Amino acid sequence: MAADDDKVQKNTVDPQYSVAIAAQFARPNAQMLSSALTYDPKLVPVGSHVTVSERSDSKQTRVGLRVTDLPANRTYGAHVHTGACGVRPTDAGVHYQHRKDPRSPSVDPAYANPKNEVWLDFTTNANGEGSAESRHAWSFRPGEARSVAIHERRTATGPGVAGTAGRVVACYSVPFNNSKEAGKAVAGVLSKIF
């Protein structure tokens, strides 16, 4: 099963936090949820691969996304979300925001923008590979960033539509931030590997 393919590396030696986690996308299954789910196999095929990394220290947070085996030459929106992935695409919640918009979901460009949220939009190449990186001068609040959701189209930026990118077509639960919750998520993935 795809969950067994998850690979986690955690840096515990220095005050920096880093995690790199990879998996294959699977269909949602109520019996056993994979950490990487596809809700639209035409746009994110079963068995396609995803890797998410986070590196953070006292000065910045970097989040990276890499995908393989997706349809060629296609643009997707991708963002860090507040909920973990589940059977339904909406289970991942809303976009993580450093400065929270009092209205949710946010479509106000003052809040829904790539400086206040983690946007990882990408376009696949002829081989179906894509990647993105986002850097911020802030860190995730513990337990509030739980997944990367991949959307069907590039993220909009205009008033009233800022941050929207269409349907969530795939989701990957990620242990962001060096928190107790992240440690539990890493331990859960490691227990599936070993």
Feature tags:
five-stranded antiparallel beta sheet; globular; disordered N terminus; mainly beta; disordered C terminus; Immunoglobulin-like; single chain; 194 residues; 10 strands; 30% strand
**Spatial order of strands in the largest sheet:** 1-2-4-5-8
What is the gyration radius calculated from CA atoms? 16 Å
- Runs with pLDDT <50, length 5+? 1-14, 179-183, 185-194
Q: What coarse outline follows from CA principal-axis ratios? A: globular
Task: Give the class-level CATH name.
Answer: Mainly Beta
- The CATH topology comes to Immunoglobulin-like
How much helix is in the residues?
A: under 10%
- Give the oligomeric state: single chain
Supply the number of structural domains. 1
Strand content: 25-35%
Helix/strand/pairing category: mainly beta
- The tally of beta strands, per DSSP, is 10
Mean pLDDT: 87
Sequence of secondary-structure elements: EEEEEEEEEEH
Main sheet properties: 5 strands, antiparallel
Beginning-to-end CA distance, first to last residue: 14 Å
What's the total helix number?
Answer: 1
Reported CATH architecture: Sandwich
InterPro entries: SOD-like_Cu/Zn_dom_sf (IPR036423)
Family: Belongs to the Cu-Zn superoxide dismutase family.
Protein name: Superoxide dismutase family protein
GO molecular function, one term: metal ion binding
Care to give the gist of this entry?
By secondary structure, the protein is mainly beta. It has 1 helix and 10 strands. This is Superoxide dismutase family protein.
